């Protein structure tokens, strides 16, 4: 199936970004993975070069999954099964910094986990223990490539090397929490960077979030706190800019992946991550992992 599709890169669209425009749709697929079905059908489209790319709406088209409910393991496993080696993941975020106004974009390079243990966040466990490196949760090579194209965003700024905090939600933060995140050094906040980034790392997929600022959360004491209305208002401008950025970045990213020039190369990094003695491995878990990392743990 992976060969049939020959898809190397994927875009995950978040709140307000539910499809890719301007690309010819080739087919829709809905692979059942050992972790269930993805959020929605995966749309396979053609780039101008003829190469295929995948698009997945994180909350489903029509936005019916809360951040906690997103079947992230199935999403990442399904993309990996199609052959995906790099993911550009879009996310609507609140800004925790004056210098990141609504409609600016941010390429985070660090991440603070404030999810609450409700989301399955690893492909391992149940008789197969493995540990992935996660010191740098995003992919510098993809970030650099996206940053090169910042000119397409007109008057809006694309910031790099910022810290994101991922909270559970679905309620927004209290003012005290928002101030606390600022004091921790966080620059932006969302509800979906995790476990997406962790699972992509376990699947050896290069993963970078492109965060689109929609609001100032609630730390600016004299101002109204974030609402969905504000977020969606600013997403009109943001999704137009996301599409411009995608038109510029996708051909380059696809070429870099196909030419093997995207660094760091994550392929093979999980090969020696397993801790469990061969005779102690749970055969059912080993069988599931065959879907994701064939030959690694068998
Ligand atoms: C609609 S505001 C909160 C919601 O928006 C972001 O979604 P996504 O990351 O999928 O763009 C944020 O993470 C929350 O899930
Ligand atoms: N203020 C905020 N907090 C969490 N997630 C968000 N997504 C967009 N704005 C957000």
Automatic annotation (TrEMBL):
<feature type="domain" description="Nucleoside phosphorylase">
    <location>
        <begin position="8"/>
        <end position="250"/>
    </location>
</feature>
<dbReference type="InterPro" id="IPR035994">
    <property type="entry name" value="Nucleoside_phosphorylase_sf"/>
</dbReference>
<keyword id="KW-0963">Cytoplasm</keyword>
<comment type="subunit">
    <text>Homotrimer.</text>
</comment>
<dbReference type="InterPro" id="IPR018099">
    <property type="entry name" value="Purine_phosphorylase-2_CS"/>
</dbReference>
<keyword id="KW-0328">Glycosyltransferase</keyword>
<comment type="similarity">
    <text>Belongs to the PNP/MTAP phosphorylase family. MTAP subfamily.</text>
</comment>
<dbReference type="InterPro" id="IPR000845">
    <property type="entry name" value="Nucleoside_phosphorylase_d"/>
</dbReference>
<feature type="binding site">
    <location>
        <begin position="215"/>
        <end position="217"/>
    </location>
    <ligand>
        <name>substrate</name>
    </ligand>
</feature>
<dbReference type="GO" id="GO:0005634">
    <property type="term" value="C:nucleus"/>
</dbReference>
<dbReference type="GO" id="GO:0019509">
    <property type="term" value="P:L-methionine salvage from methylthioadenosine"/>
</dbReference>
<feature type="binding site">
    <location>
        <position position="15"/>
    </location>
    <ligand>
        <name>phosphate</name>
    </ligand>
</feature>
<feature type="binding site">
    <location>
        <begin position="58"/>
        <end position="59"/>
    </location>
    <ligand>
        <name>phosphate</name>
    </ligand>
</feature>
<feature type="site" description="Important for substrate specificity">
    <location>
        <position position="173"/>
    </location>
</feature>
<keyword id="KW-0660">Purine salvage</keyword>
<dbReference type="InterPro" id="IPR010044">
    <property type="entry name" value="MTAP"/>
</dbReference>
<feature type="binding site">
    <location>
        <position position="192"/>
    </location>
    <ligand>
        <name>phosphate</name>
    </ligand>
</feature>
<keyword id="KW-0539">Nucleus</keyword>
<comment type="pathway">
    <text>Amino-acid biosynthesis; L-methionine biosynthesis via salvage pathway; S-methyl-5-thio-alpha-D-ribose 1-phosphate from S-methyl-5'-thioadenosine (phosphorylase route): step 1/1.</text>
</comment>
<comment type="function">
    <text>Catalyzes the reversible phosphorylation of S-methyl-5'-thioadenosine (MTA) to adenine and 5-methylthioribose-1-phosphate. Involved in the breakdown of MTA, a major by-product of polyamine biosynthesis. Responsible for the first step in the methionine salvage pathway after MTA has been generated from S-adenosylmethionine. Has broad substrate specificity with 6-aminopurine nucleosides as preferred substrates.</text>
</comment>
<keyword id="KW-0808">Transferase</keyword>
<feature type="site" description="Important for substrate specificity">
    <location>
        <position position="228"/>
    </location>
</feature>
<protein>
    <recommendedName>
        <fullName>S-methyl-5'-thioadenosine phosphorylase</fullName>
        <ecNumber>2.4.2.28</ecNumber>
    </recommendedName>
</protein>
<dbReference type="GO" id="GO:0006166">
    <property type="term" value="P:purine ribonucleoside salvage"/>
</dbReference>
<feature type="binding site">
    <location>
        <begin position="91"/>
        <end position="92"/>
    </location>
    <ligand>
        <name>phosphate</name>
    </ligand>
</feature>
<dbReference type="Pfam" id="PF01048">
    <property type="entry name" value="PNP_UDP_1"/>
</dbReference>
<feature type="binding site">
    <location>
        <position position="191"/>
    </location>
    <ligand>
        <name>substrate</name>
    </ligand>
</feature>
<dbReference type="GO" id="GO:0017061">
    <property type="term" value="F:S-methyl-5-thioadenosine phosphorylase activity"/>
</dbReference>
<dbReference type="GO" id="GO:0005829">
    <property type="term" value="C:cytosol"/>
</dbReference>
């Amino acid at each position: 199936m992976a060969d049939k599709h020959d898809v190397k890169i994927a875009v995950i669209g978040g709140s307000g970004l539910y499809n890719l425009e301007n690309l010819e749709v080739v087919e829709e697929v809905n692979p059942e993975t050992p972790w269930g079905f993805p959020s929605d059908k995966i749309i396979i489209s053609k780039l101008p070069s003829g190469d295929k790319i995948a698009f997945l709406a994180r909350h489903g088209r029509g936005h019916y999954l809360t951040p906690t409910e997103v079947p992230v393991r199935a999403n990442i496993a399904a993309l990996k099964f199609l052959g995906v080696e790099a993911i550009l993941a879009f996310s609507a975020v609140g800004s925790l910094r004056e210098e990141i106004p609504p409609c600016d974009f941010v390429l985070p390079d660090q991440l603070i986990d404030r999810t609450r243990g409700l989301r399955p966040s690893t492909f391992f466990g149940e008789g197969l223990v493995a540990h992935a490196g996660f010191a740098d949760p995003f992919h510098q090579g993809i970030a650099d490539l996206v940053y090169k194209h910042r000119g397409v965003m007109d008057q809006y700024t694309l910031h790099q090397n910022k810290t994101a905090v991922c909270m559970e939600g679905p309620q927004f933060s209290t003012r005290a929490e928002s101030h606390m995140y600022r004091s921790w050094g966080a620059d932006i906040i969302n509800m979906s960077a995790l476990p997406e980034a962790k699972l992509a790392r376990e699947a050896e997929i290069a993963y970078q979030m492109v965060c689109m600022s929609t609001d100032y959360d609630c730390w600016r004491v004299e101002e109204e706190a974030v609402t969905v209305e504000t977020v969606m208002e600013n997403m009109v401008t943001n999704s137009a800019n996301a599409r411009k950025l995608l038109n510029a970045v996708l051909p380059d990213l696809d070429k870099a992946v196909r030419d093997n020039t995207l660094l760091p190369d994550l392929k093979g990094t999980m090969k020696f991550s397993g801790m469990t003695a061969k005779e102690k491995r749970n055969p059912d878990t080993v069988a599931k992992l065959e879907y994701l990392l064939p030959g690694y743990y068998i």
